[in-house]
Design brief:
Structural class: alpha+beta
Strand content: 5-15%
Low-confidence stretches: 1-19, 74-80, 840-854
Helix content: 40-55%
Largest sheet: 7 strands, antiparallel
Shape: elongated
Number of strands: 21
Radius of gyration: 31 Å
Mean pLDDT: 86
Length: 854
Amino acid sequence: MSDTHLPAASAEPPASEALDVARYDEMTDAAAALRPHWQGFASAFAHMTGAEYARRITSARGVIRDNGVTYNVYDDEGGHARPWQLDIVPLVVSAADWAAIEAAVIQRARLADALLRDIYGPQRLIAEGHLPPHLVFGHPQFLRPLTGAKPPGGVHVHLWSADIARAPDGSWVVLSARADAPSGVGYALENRIVVSQTFPDLFRDLQVERLAGFFHAYREHVLGLANGAPGRAVLLTPGAYNEAYFEHAYLAHYLGLSLVEGQDLVVRDGQVFLKTLAGLERVAVIFRRLDSDFCDPLEFRAESALGVPGLAEAARAGGVVLANALGGGVIESPALGAFLPEIARALLGEELAVPDIATIWCGTAWGRKAAHERLAQGVVRNAFDARPLFSRGSSARLGRELKPAELAQFAERLEARGATYVIQDIAPLGLAPVFDGGTIAARPVSLRVFAAWTPDGYKVMPGALTRVAPDETIRALSMQSGAATKDTWILSRGPVGTFSLLRRSGERLAVRRAGDDAPSRAMDNLFWLGRYAERAENLVRVLRAVVLRLGDDPALSAPATVGELARRLLLPLGQVSVSAVDDAARGDDARLSAELHAAIFGREPPHGLQRLLANVQRTAWAVRDRLSFDTWRTLHALTAPEMGFDARARFDPAGARTYLDTLVRRAAALAGLSAENMTRGSNWLFLDLGRRIERATHAGWLVRQTLAFQDERESEALQLALEIADSSMTYRSRYFNVFQLAPGLDLLLLDDTNPRSVAFQVATVAGHVAALPKSTPVQQRRLADTIAGDAWTAVKAADPLALERSDDSGRRPALNALIATIDDAMMRLSDAIADAYFQHARRQRADVVRRGAP
């Protein structure tokens, strides 16, 4: 349902006026005395010095930064990935308080499952008048093709979540609930790991409930619904551009699942298969983090490029377990809160243990009359807009902020389309302590709680994703609008269990030296990660060589002027303009300096360094689950935006040189990690293949740009090529300071003992290609092996003295021919590898903002 029926407004209500109501304080009572369950934490905090606390904050922030914990916000200035905001003071909840929350959460999860069973089954609630038909059949998330379908085990909701907040009297109220593809549970786990490491002694002494048992129950009972059917379990994500992608990768790793996108899967004969390097592999269970309506373009949203054609039919046929089952978004409607008490009585025979926020549906005459009466103290919402209040894109408007003309317009729309509106009260969020500027302050909070299905009933995670407002005026919390988060500590009444999901049981495991077959898309991304990383390092080395010589250092040599150097090395790469090169040739370096600065630090130049580093980062995000923490941290350091200088500042050669030197070291660290720390499986093979193909191409290009034509300053050109190729020391150790072309060409092109030479890359590529699986008919043709073998033959047959010879025009035909052969071979080899191993669907992916994200 479109949100355009409400008057236009800013996404966030004015923050100038505080709510004139009392708020419940989690830490202190009405007499400002500490609540009993906070005394242990407060005592420990009181004995902590300011310096020690600052050290712990710095440590926690460092872990978050190094782990690359982010939350993607699409319209944030400066990029889509925002560092995760964590306040390290946990929210402490007593065992008694939690027992009441736990009972209410279990009831709500049971109710959500029963409600979906009725909506997609007998629809008794509609027939008996407990639920207006419009709230089901008019809801854009009601998926008609699923009517009558029964998911495995009859379970619709395997993971359920709700946002709850304290009322002024200390009771709880439900703000919203999620039953389709709930998010936030992975972020809650990450918060726990960071905060428990920040206060390890305190965490142990307070006997905080552990989370591992909850995740184990969630995973094992979903897998159990497959009834032992062969196949893999995967986590389906919308992709690296989704706002909660970090959570998806993190959960997949923690739960031992393969992280996949829709293009990795295909449906055949009512069953789902994963596209791997070795062919199709059966998928038995899908943990879904993609909204239902995007899951199948054949039956739901035809424009979706994120789903799997035929997935709904596979689900109906029982060919795959989907957790959660498709169609849960229909009960996330804000309007449902007006009917839940009656629905609970009809389906469960129970009264709701915790009420929803007061909600009036405007689909009746009484509702429209009540809406006008409560407009001043409520918020106007689209009845089908489940996004958090005042989050980006939300339709919510405070009634008292509507201007007279808007009120008249709203009254007309209410009469014409009242069923698409609700009026909700604004819940005064309770307060919790935060550390702010060296002192403890109070900020509004809400909790996102989670329940997982088991055959014995729903199990509640003994913790929550607590979200924290930046100030006391905030009326609703969402990560999209800048809320921070907390860990939530539930105090145990007795000894705390020691179960860990990371520890295996005592059963003996079969020895394996390979993991499951990888999705072909992931290998494609690793291949291009290797290429982009190598391309970035090559560009950095070229830029550094020019920057060094721009300072007129007499210790450095160059082939003629800096202008000529830029013409040979930077102009072909699109880093500088012809006019800048021409000015430099005439002795005026001002324009060249400015364009160099933009090429190094600017984000706008299409071929600039920052754009290339962004490609590295984006591709790394897509395979985050396949990179070790150390590799990810090194990639993050290499591509971190804060390393860059101000693109609008004047060019500073010394500062640029320092920055480029740092990038060279970090690129070398990344290459070293992949060489020394990655097992020699498919991940490493494709990553290194991409790197070697790119390095071979660049090495040939470098020689062609500097040495392909006879030049009176050939010795200086050779020194430049050796410097950029990081081969100067090797050359000097063999030939001292006598620079001749044939030995230089041999070292740069033909010496297979030099890790920077073309020969070394071609030999390595040939070995890698031979080690790739040969399972499919296309792979068994061995076209890539043939191309690599021919390239290796051409290199081995080359004679450095023949390469050195020039014709009457000064051109070196044999040298140019060899480089052209290598260029062509690397291009054809890349295509052959793609044809044989990366033939997954290449559909255009949409950047989808999940409803109900944390």
